[in-house]
Amino acid sequence: MWAPMAGLSPRLTLAAFPGAARLCLWRAGAARWKGVPARNRRGLSDFRPKLAPSEGFKVLPPGVSKSRLESKRYILSPDLAETMVPFLLRNDGCDLILEINPGPGILTRALLQRGARVIALESDKTFIPHLESLGKKLGGKLHVLHCDFFKLDPRSFGVIKPVVNSKLLFQKFGIETLPWSKGIPLKVVGIFPTKNEKKMIWKVLHDIYSCTSIYRYGRVELNFFFNELESQRMMANPLNPNLYYALSVLWQVAYDVKLLHTESLEQQTQQNLCLIQLTPHKDLFSQHLTSVNYDVFFHMTKQCFLKRHGKLIDHLTSLSPIDAMDILKKIRQDKTIKIIDMYPSDFKCLFETIECSKDHTCKWLYDDFMEDVIV
Amino acid sequence: MSALRWGRGAAGLGWALWPAGRPGLLAEEGTLGGLWGCRRSSSASPCEQDRRRDWGHAELLEVLEARVRQLQADNVSEMRAKLLDVARIPEADGSQSPRKVEAGNEGAALGLTSRWAQKLHKEKLVMQKRKQKLEENLQKQARKHQLRVEPQLLNRQLAGWLQRWERSTPRSPWEEQLAQLLQEAPKRLSREEQHDQANRLSKMRYEAQQQRLLAFLECCVLADQLPLAHHVLVMHHSKSRQQRALTLPMYNTLLLGWARKGSFKELVYVFFMMKDAGLAPDLLSYAAALQCMGRLDQDASTIQRCLKQMAQDGLQLQELFTSLPLCKEDKAVLLRAVRKAEPTFLPPQPPLPSFEVNTSPLLKEIYSTDLPASFPKQHLPLETLKDLFRQQLSVEMATIVTVDSVEKAPSLTEEVLQARKTLQELRTRWEAELCLALQQTKAREAQAAREGRPSLFPYLCLLSEGELTQLMLQTLQVLSQQGESLLSLAQELGMRIFNRHVVQRKQLNDEVQALQERYFKYLHLLASDTQVVMSRLPRQHWEALGTTEASQDQPWPLTVVVQLGKQLAEVLVQTVKMPSNLAQLQDTQKLIPVLYHVYSFQSFRQIGILKPHPAFIQLLETAAERTMTFESAEVPMLCPPLPWTSPHSGAFLLSPTKLMRSLEGTIQHQRLLEGCPPTELHGALDALTQLGNCAWRVNGRVLDLVLTIFNAKGCPRLGVPSPASEAPRPSKHRLPANASPERKTELRRELARCLKVAREMHSLRTDALYRLSLAQHLRHRVFWLPHNMDFRGRTYPCPPHFNHLGSDLARALLEFAQGRPLGPHGLNVAKVLEGFISRKVVKQTVMTVVYGVTRYGGRLQIEKRLRELSDFPQEFVWQASHYLVRQVFNSLQEMFSSTRAIQRWLTESARLIARSGLAVEWVTPLGIPIIQPYHHDSKVSISGGIQSLTFCSSGDTNQKPNTLKQKNGFPPNFIHSLDSSHMMLTALHCYRKGLTFVSVHDCFWTHAADVAVMNQVCREQFVRLHSQPILHDLSRFLVERYCSGPRSTNAQVAKLQEMLLSVPKTGTFDLDQVKHSTYFFS
User: Key word Manganese present in the record (chain A) (predicted)?
Assistant: First the structure.
């Protein structure tokens, strides 16, 4: 069960917590505690015995209340944490976990107890002291940092706060770079935000295809809870055409997408969150698809899915000046093939075919100018 | 109606064919008779009748169809063959079809044999009916190809009347009909629309539809497609649902069209329809009727009856000549008709130009006739100016200006010549192909119009196919390498067609001759060697020379403009092809498209882009043709512009120009300007006229210098852009295959950066190229820059490429035609803070705080400035900009506390006004009405064709105002409007003192010798303007505008009123100090 904590008074919250709460939806949580008498607040520390003494909550840092209006979800149940640990620690040579917004630190604790090294990036200041004390108690294998993972390395490349610069950050934790063909340098675990979800998804995809931000360090594995619809879309292919989108193609070309676990959010609404493991493909980059020209691939996919039920041959005329029939012949597809009949790998193959075609000075009609991607 | 007639015919046929009384058929006939009778005798309301008729009809058809279906199986082929025969007979009367008679005979032969024969016979008869029905359908089909003339009326009584008139031979005199029609006219002027607030959206859509239909009909009349317009009107009229959308102006459009042609029958038809629709004729309808009578030379009594009826309807005869937008010829015919009835009638003289004067105290001195005034003259003699007018006229009649490029001519190598030849061949081929494609498109659109679907047909007929082809080829020529969005391309094409059409119409209407005569008289005021009796302002003089004709060219609805442009763009994409290998032009080669329709993804929107094939761009570059084409309204004028006399007349001789520029599709400014009393606008009209009357010439020495630099790869430091070939190149183009992804990303970023820089340089270079080429084109000439204003009253020169707005380079190229060159302005950089912090860093922020810049925007501004400082340590930019913006805001808060109070008052008032559902309006001290065009986006989509286009317009007054924009925009816009008032006042006063004066917003120029005078005038006017109770005037205006009438009871309005009345105190700033201040204008 996912317990909404927001509207409840601390006493009611307490009552709700000992139940089957495994994850919690936290709306403007910290801000609302401001007006609650200190005595009640102490009750909270009862519930979370490892939480730091309530002094940490007494004076809320200014500015918190404004930006905390969006709801946040946290893992609350030790059971769920126990379920997740084996997915993350599977003796594959990488026990470095980057946990995003751990909140009360239930999963953090479970991970640390299994001997993992954890870096916790928490965007809500209120949890920082608690997390720090947790780290101290469990033997110093935890680094806590007040930082929003999803604001890391903004794509505008303007002036950024040092705290969201992944280069400085990773340097600080001594994370070493592994070549793309080698193992996994780092595993990221967290709950994907619902606010600006689409924007965040595009950011992740741009990061991996361009090998920037966290992907500078190699094939970083992502383990995120997505909402059910989004995760179904991520895994869709021509077999379930209703969910098949441009994003499905881009996800599956870049990652090995695996559904690990499904957790229901609220029993009433039947809403589920799915834990998805995203392992970058070793052979994502080839001679023809590189971090230099991936944006053309993005554009091609997006344009194709503008009219998903259209024929590929009709799309090709506005993608490339190269003769459409020639291209189809080369990728050995029939001229009646529709976009929704093509698997993600077919799109990659199509792209590489056009990209490597000889005797054409101009292979694509696409142009940087056409996209508002800031490189 | 036709079904009805057929019904009777069939019954008759039955009688004729049937030898003896057979019960079966009788029964059937009875049904028919019954239906007929019922309809004739019914006294039920029309709509009930309709329903009943439809029901009866449906039942009949059902019976017939069921029977026919039984028989059809074995007779299909036979019937098909017959149908084809019938189809060839135009207007064949069903009962006389030879086949039918034959069938009848056959039946008669078999008839008496036996019962089964009877049965068979009966069935055959039914089949015949079915056949007849199908024939009817085919005839209908055939009729579809000819246009309908005769209306189908919904009112039965009226329909009967019309039919009696149609059938009676000889026809009763039509004037009788008309008189009767007019006599019993319904009393409603126009249909009251049912106001349904809940259905705002559908109402808007409905209104847009009406607007489009009216524009269509008007355009049909202009394009000489009157029968088509009539057909479409009849089609709409015949369906009760569609009829409800028809308005009086639509019928009037047709009336006027037929009247001009002197086609009486059709005119009466339209009157029938008008009456049927329940619309009463208005003045324009009468004018049309009278005009038609005039053309047909009717006798006096008929006209007298018409005039009498008109008087009974409470319409004044005089007004026919004063309040209608009729052209001269129409009026002459009208007068002839009226004179016949009343030989002594004298048309009212056009009202003498009123020398009513603006009442604003600020303008008292300008318009006072007591004080002496010495207005400046042009420095040229009359004959020269006349000659210049003729030149400008010929330029505008040609609509385009061809200008030689100043770029260095390429050496004429074999390659260049070959490319030019190829291009020429391609163009010749395209021209023919485009013409053909346009013909096909037109045929398609004409068919659509005939079937009553929305159509662009009349718009496509306004210009010849050749002209349209030229337009399209020009578009292709200037398309940039990265392409252009289909929407803007379509809009531009559409607007160009409109402008061209307006110019052509003016030529056709003989306006040019009248214009020339008037202009020559007007020149006596301006020429250096002539004198006029009265010293007057140019506008006053122009008005004294005749009346201003009402503008007849309503702009087309934006959807029509875009649709038209899109249609042409589509033709272009589909038609223009080139061989896949341009090196060898052979007919056997495969053809590939030149233009591609691609999509660009910008966040959540997709934008369709038309992009040329790179090979085509390459060809254009190689050919390096040295001419460029401009619209005539993009080039400065060769003679003094027409003085502004109204919101839509002034500036260019023929090209339409608006007094207040606005986004296409925003009409509230124009409406407001047209609605306000003419004298209120005098200040703005005269100031703009005066700014446009300044004669310029090119500073030849500067141009030579700039051209030398320009063709020697430019010099960005001096403001002469370099060609894109000078752009920085990426250090290494190819990376080894095993390079790390990170390295590749870096390369990618570098490439993109270089590309971006190259693009920026290219666009700067192109801008400079246009500017310099036009300068070269106008070298050794005197020219004028007509001015208009934006919605806040800020003035701008109309020609976009070559004017005194913009960089130092732009200003240095120009000099007063009579006087000394303008010196470039130096930049004073005063160090305000220590270290790197110069005045420039924070200036923008300080200046924009008054305009409501937020802390966030302020930080970005400062950050940008800091980045521009090359020696500033970049890693500190973020912290430094943060620090500075805090400092700036804190100090400003102290300094401008009263200004901030005023700003808060303006913002709050605007917020409350917008919340009450209205846009903020005000009137500048000079009397210009201003309205903020910020509303919630209204989306209009045009589907079909290569792509659905959706455009958002924030200026749609049907949408609720955008509170955020209204409130944030009010303070800066208000201040801009005050600034512009100050500028206009200065301009007018300088003008009265005989000074030449030009300005760019807050930067004023005059001859060096007159600077002292100008400075004095400028300060005086500043003080006078700000001595006015500006805020109290504003408060009074706003209270009256928003808090009076039925609204005033509302609690929200009461709150607004309270806010509006609490005018903040102005600062304690002593205005007289301004007069002595040294730094007032630096």
Answer: no
Domains annotated on chain A, with CATH: 72-280 (3.40.50.150), 293-356 (1.10.8)
Q: Do B745 and A321 touch (CB under 8 A)?
A: no
* Chain-centroid distance, C-alpha B640: 26
- Number of C-beta neighbours around residue B482 at 10 A: 17
Give the DSSP H/E element, type plus range, for residue B309: helix B300-312
Q: How confident is the model at residue A7 (pLDDT cuts 50, 70, 90)?
A: very low
Q: Which of B479, B746, B748 to mutate to test the interface with A (most CBs of A within 10 A)?
A: B748
CA distance B261 to B364: 51
The residues with which A52 forms a beta bridge, in sequence order, are none
Q: What percent of chain B has pLDDT over 90?
A: 18
Q: Within an 8 Å CB–CB cutoff, is residue A287 touching chain B?
A: yes
Q: What is the nearest CA distance from B749 to chain A, expressed in angstroms? A: 6
Q: Are B479 and B578 in contact (CB under 8 A)?
A: no
Q: Phi and psi for A17 in degrees, rounded to 5?
A: -65, -45
What pLDDT shows up at residue B1071? 56
Beta carbons within 10 angstroms of residue B785's beta carbon: 24
**B660, β-bridge pairs:** B789
Annotated binding site of A for S-adenosyl-L-methionine: 75, 122, 148
Residues ≥6 apart with Cβ < 8 Å to B550: B325
Do the chains contact at B742 and A287, CB–CB below 8 Å?
A: no
SS3 call for B857: helix
Query: Angle, to 10 degrees, between the axis of helix B2-17 and the axis of helix B115-144?
Result: 150
Q: Is the pLDDT of residue B924 over 50?
A: yes
Q: Is residue B144 pLDDT above 90, yes or no? A: no
Contacts of A369 in chain B (CB under 8 A): 482, 600, 759
Q: Where are the alpha helices (DSSP H) in B808-917?
A: 808-812, 839-849, 855-868, 877-895, 897-915
Residues 6+ away with beta carbon under 8 Å from B915: B963, B1052
Q: Quick one: pLDDT band at residue B458, thresholds 50, 70, 90?
A: very high
Measured at the CA of B712, the angle between CA B710 and CA B717, to 5 degrees, comes to: 60
Give the model's pLDDT for residue B28.
37
Residue type, A43: G
Burial class of B838 by CB neighbour count within 10 A (0 to 12, 13 to 18, 19+) = middle
Strand A117-122 relative to strand A221-227: parallel, antiparallel, unpaired? unpaired
Minimum distance, in Å, between the CA of residue B600 and any CA atom of chain A: 5
Q: What sign results for the dihedral spanned by CA atoms B479, B484, B488, B490?
A: positive
| ipTM higher than the 0.95 cut | no
CA distance B409 to B407: 6
Chain B residues near any Cβ of chain A (below 8 Å): 482-483, 590, 592-593, 596-604, 606, 609, 611, 613-615, 737, 740-742, 744-745, 747-749, 751-753, 755-756, 759, 863, 877-878, 881
- Mean pLDDT for all residues in chain B: 76
Q: Do B745 and A361 touch (CB under 8 A)?
A: no
CA atoms of B506 and B509, how far apart (whole Å) = 5
Alpha-carbon gap, residue B427 to B469, rounded angstroms: 10
Q: Please judge whether A211 and B741 are an interchain contact, meaning their C-beta atoms are less than 8 angstroms apart.
A: yes
State how far Cα B44 lies from the chain centre.
Answer: 47
Which has the higher per-residue pLDDT, B869 or B1027? B1027
**A316 to chain B: nearest residue by CA?**
B598
Residues 6+ apart with CB under 8 A from B470: none
Whether the Cβ atoms of residue B774 and residue B403 lie closer than 8 Å to each other = yes
Query: Hey, what are B257's tokens?
Result: 């069209």
Joined together, the tokens standing for residue A223 give 């383990």
Global model pTM greater than 0.80: no
Percentage of residues of chain B with pLDDT beyond 70:
73
Active site (catalytic) residues of B: 1002
